[in-house]
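[step 3/7] inverse_fold.run input=structure_tokens len=359
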């Protein structure tokens, strides 16, 4: 068999090796999966503008995000339970991240504690994802734990107060095995739920949304964190929310529709990114995820206003295919594809990438 050459090759390998129910959990989108499919289709639909005879001496892919200089604009997105696809779980992800100098946004639903990853002989640059907990003090405890372990930024996911309706996952019968658990949530208080009254709503009348976060919770968390702690919001699609984030002192935004896993028929992140970038107007950095599978996708994201991208499902595909070495190879492939795309559009550095590279 030909060795994997691109992200899609790793996806095909992963599908052949994973239990079908785990594959359904990994790949399923919300409802009819229109948004999940749009994420994948929107980036290739954009056309690049070739430029020739441009000076390329000293070309590089370095980028600065929130005062951190990165070797390239690729980050690993927070995704749960890497132990479902590889025995080394998040440790394998961390090893690949360190080897490729890729920031790793560790999921709060990781099966490996952040302290263990930070204690590796060569740890990666770790960020930490938060979900707002039912009790504010639990949210702050998670943030404090992550910062004490060495997390360089916190990423509050704000677009999933409830899970989406994922029919493909439901049909597969997927259940999280007893051997997998979200270790950072041990001992925290879950949302208090009550039985819905006869004929009532199992969501609206059960109390499950009583503790759903709002902008007051964001402001509270911002005030509680040590001065200078970078706080990002993940899950921004509307420019109005981008303006509110600026007003609340947020340090960076991630344009995301949760991989199309929550509300179906949302726009692709490719479609949503330009309006958010216009609202932010360069005052804080932007990242984007959703459907990034090629270096050309990365270049297009930067051209539309992002400073970097996150990859989610492809990380798990590569882990399933071959653990840390496979993931390190995938990241190098994506970086190499980006460099080729930069060279063929005449962009010596990422600062040269803007809307002019697009038709």
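[step 3/7] decode complete -> sequence:
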């Amino acid at each position: 068999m030909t060795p994997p050459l691109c992200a899609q090759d790793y996806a095909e390998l992963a599908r052949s090796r994973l239990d079908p129910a785990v594959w359904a959990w990994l790949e399923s989108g919300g409802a009819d999966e229109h948004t999940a499919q749009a994420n994948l289709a929107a980036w290739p639909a954009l056309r690049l503008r070739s430029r020739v005879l441009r000076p390329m001496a000293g070309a590089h892919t370095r980028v600065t995000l929130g005062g951190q200089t990165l070797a390239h604009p690729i980050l690993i997105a927070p995704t749960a339970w890497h132990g479902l696809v590889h025995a080394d779980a998040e440790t394998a992800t961390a090893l690949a991240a360190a080897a490729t100098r890729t920031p790793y946004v560790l999921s709060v639903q990781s099966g490996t504690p952040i302290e263990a990853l930070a204690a590796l002989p060569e740890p990666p640059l770790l960020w930490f994802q938060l979900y707002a907990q039912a009790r504010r003090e639990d949210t702050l405890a998670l943030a404090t734990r992550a910062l004490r372990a060495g997390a360089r930024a916190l990423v509050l996911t704000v677009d999933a107060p409830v899970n989406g309706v994922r029919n493909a996952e439901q049909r597969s019968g997927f259940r999280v095995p007893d051997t997998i658990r979200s270790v950072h949530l041990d001992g925290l208080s879950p949302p208090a739920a009550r039985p819905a009254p006869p004929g009532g709503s199992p969501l609206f009348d059960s109390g499950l949304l009583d503790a759903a976060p709002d902008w007051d919770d964001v402001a509270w968390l911002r005030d509680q964190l040590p001065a200078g702690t970078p706080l990002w919001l993940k899950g921004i699609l509307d420019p109005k929310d981008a303006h509110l984030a600026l007003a609340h002192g947020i340090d960076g935004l991630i344009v995301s529709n949760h991989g199309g896993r929550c509300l179906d028929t949302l726009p692709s992140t490719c479609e949503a990114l330009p309006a958010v970038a216009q609202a932010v107007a360069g005052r804080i950095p932007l990242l984007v995820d959703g459907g990034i599978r090629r270096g050309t996708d990365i270049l297009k994201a930067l051209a539309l206003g992002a400073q970097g991208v996150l990859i989610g499902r492809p990380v798990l595909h590569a882990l399933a295919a071959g653990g840390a070495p496979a993931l390190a190879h995938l990241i190098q492939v994506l970086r190499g594809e980006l460099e080729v795309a930069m060279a063929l559009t005449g962009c010596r550095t990422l600062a040269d990438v803007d809307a002019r590279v697009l038709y």
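[step 4/7] annotate
The mean pLDDT is 97.
The domain at 7-51+64-187+209-350 is CATH 3.20.20.70 (TIM Barrel).
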